[in-house]
Amino acid sequence: MLLGLASVLAAGCTRPATSPPATSPAGGRADRATEVALRSVERHPPSQQPWRWETAILSLGLARLAEVDDGPWQERLAEHYAAHAPPRIRRPDDCAPAMAAALLLMRGDERARPAVERVAEYLRQAPRNSLDALDHLDPRTALGRLYPASIWVDSLVMYGLSAAWVGQALDDPALVAFAHAQPAIFAAALQDPSTGLFRHAYLHERGRTRPEGEVFWLRGNGWVALSLVELLDTMEPGTAERASTLAILRRLAEGLHAHRRVDGTWATVLDDRRAPLESSGTALAAYALAKGARQGVLPAWHRDEARQTLATLERRLRARRDGPVVASSSGPTIPGRRAAYVMVPRRSDVPYGVGAYLLLAAELRREP
Predict the structure, then answer these.
(1) What band does 19 get if pLDDT is binned at 50, 70 and 90?
(2) Would you say 236 and 310 are in contact if contact means Cβ atoms under 8 Å apart?
(3) Are 214 and 271 in contact (CB under 8 A)?
(4) CATH topology classification for 9-363
(5) Is residue 183 within 8 Å of residue 156, measured between CB atoms?
(6) Residue 268: closest CA among 333, 326, 313, 203
(7) I need a labelling partner for 269 at 20 to 30 A (CA). Which of 154, 171, 192, 349 fits?
(8) Would you tell me the crossing angle of helices 301-315 and 279-295 to the nearest 10 degrees?
(9) Gyration radius (Cα) of the chain, Å
(10) Do 34 and 71 touch, CB atoms closer than 8 A?
(11) Structural domain boundaries of the chain?
(12) Of 185, 187, 271, 265, nearest in space to 225 by CA
């Protein structure tokens, strides 16, 4: 199994750095992550999974696990891309499956190329809005009419990170440059200047955020944090985009740390300690902070805190006859009032919850 991606220069940007040597974490964590991943790919074979953002996060988690584990993860992922012709891409969320595909292609697996090329075609042609970003929704849909001309934090991962890796995989510097511009665009519209946290959505034709008050959705901030640390690996040192992205990440890291619970988790609404734990956002946030510490751009103690987070999430794994599952991931969420976020049902064994957990577990197997 290949460990990481080659550290080479292409298209005026840096490919994601070669992964450090894998280690066996204390406390049997490697076994737990492997058990979760094995159950997931056996219960939900990648070759049978739909082209959706939810399964794309699971694919990304498996792709990162493949860098530090000798299991069959890369081959099972490739089966997913080989089994289906990529569909027509209609909106930014549809770009997300290209993330793992681009990583596979950069590792030399040509079975992922059709998926990468299909998303590249969409990203090159998708109309930019007045912010030079992509609107999150199709205005012809009911939800698009409810949130017209809007950007959502989810998109920093779904199309922003996808654009960076797709651009690298296909040697397309314009796509990479487009990706590198997105963090500053989203931060200007959505990052709260006092807390460093991000609101969910911005209606750019109306100049209004959703929510309007100080309501900060955990998983949305996890999406942002994930995208920032991954994009940093694709940026050349000394560039304005990298400096801006670093500043955005550090403000966000302070905001996340301020709302971290004593057991290492976060509530689904960050500034509401009465709100319930949400595991997918917790894992995304801890992953990003731990990786930022390994990159040397955040304090080293974030990795110690991430280990506590992982231990808490693993204590909360639910035992099933065919293996452990990740619990307490809230369902797909639209911008709303504080109570609306709290009321979103939480479920077990959802693909993005499993994927987020695998990202964190894989990251903590690496040497700091």
Answers:
(1) very low
(2) no
(3) yes
(4) Glycosyltransferase (1.50.10)
(5) yes
(6) 333
(7) 349
(8) 150
(9) 19
(10) yes
(11) 9-363
(12) 187
